[in-house]
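Anyone up for a design puzzle?
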C-alpha cells in the first residue's frame, strides 16, 4: 500500500490519486492525457499533472477551468511555468488556486 503519510496539503499520496481519478470520472476525461508522465498502477501526483504538456490537455479537449479545478481539488500548486502555459494557451483569468496553505485543524499541545 502507498504511504499513509499526509503532506502539507493534508492528503496522503493515495488520497490525492483517488481525488484526481474521481474528478476525471466527473468530467468524463481519460487518463490518457498523462500517458507520457504516468502509467496505470502508479499514483497520479501534482508533479504528473504539472509536467503534462499543455498540448495533451488540449488534444483531449480540456478547458482551463477543468485543469484548474483538478489542481485545486487535489490541492496541487500551479507553478509559474504551468500558469504561463495556461495563460498563453487558454487566455482568460485564473480560476481558484491552491496556494499550499495547510488546512489541518490546529493541534493543542
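Challenge accepted. My sequence:
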Amino acid at each position: 500500500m502507498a504511504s499513509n503519510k499526509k503532506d502539507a496539503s493534508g492528503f496522503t499520496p493515495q488520497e490525492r490519486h483517488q481525488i484526481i481519478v474521481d474528478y476525471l470520472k466527473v468530467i468524463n476525461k481519460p487518463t490518457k492525457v498523462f500517458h507520457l508522465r504516468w502509467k496505470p498502477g502508479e499514483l497520479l501526483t501534482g508533479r504528473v499533472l504539472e509536467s503534462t504538456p499543455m498540448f495533451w490537455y488540449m488534444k483531449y479537449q480540456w478547458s482551463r477551468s477543468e485543469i484548474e479545478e483538478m489542481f485545486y481539488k487535489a490541492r496541487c500548486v500551479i507553478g509559474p511555468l504551468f500558469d504561463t502555459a495556461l495563460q498563453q494557451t487558454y487566455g482568460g483569468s485564473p480560476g481558484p488556486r491552491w496556494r499550499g496553505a495547510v488546512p489541518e485543524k490546529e493541534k493543542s499541545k
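A detail worth pointing out: The longest helix spans residues 13-27.
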